[in-house]
What we know:
Helix content: 25-40%
Mean pLDDT: 93
Structural class: alpha/beta
Radius of gyration: 17 Å
Number of helices: 6
Amino acid sequence: xxxxxxxxxxxxxxxxxxxxxLAADGMSVVAADRDLPATGDGLTPLALDVxxxxxxxxxxxxxxxxxxxxxxxxxxxxxxxFMDLTEAxxxxxxxxxxxxxxxxxxxxLRTMPDGGRIVTVASRAYLGxxxxxxxxxxKAAVVALTRTMAIEFASRDIAVNAxxxxxxxxxxxxxxxxxxxxxxxxxxxTGRLGRPQDIAAAAAYLAAPDTGFVTGQVMIVDxxxxxxxxxx
Length: 232
């Protein structure tokens, strides 16, 4: 039977690229997002709020079969100096970036077959980043949650790993000038910004059925930026 993948936050950017890559690799893909994703070859769109457990449970029941591969990509982003952050900033960030991953993973794991795969999209910001106290903290928590799931479900051959992207050319960067984008590209050892397809390739590897011996890991995909230099 064709493997079934659920990708959250799949309307655009990294999530869309991951959904398209998994479909190209032969999976049936449910592309979920609060903003209903467009259809495509091998993609079934699903409107979903990952923070609503009842909605997640209903959506999974509606799919009609267990999910073999889950990619937790849904997330929100903002940047703000540490001393300007509020409790509301943290709550909004954690609600989607952490609680959403917890809810969807828990609901999917209730029926996921042995040998399943879970990929969470964290961020290189989990290592620490200027003006990203709330965002980095949420992604660091995602990494910890990923490793916990890897430990608890290893006996079922369910591999759980995280991807930590660096700076990727997504709609988040649309407001930057060409000069600023060029400056950011020069900070990368590879000399360019990441593309959504770079992250999709990593997700496809971790989602493959023959990579089960890789679990509890964080794959940093940042063009070598973590080798050194100043983060933004």
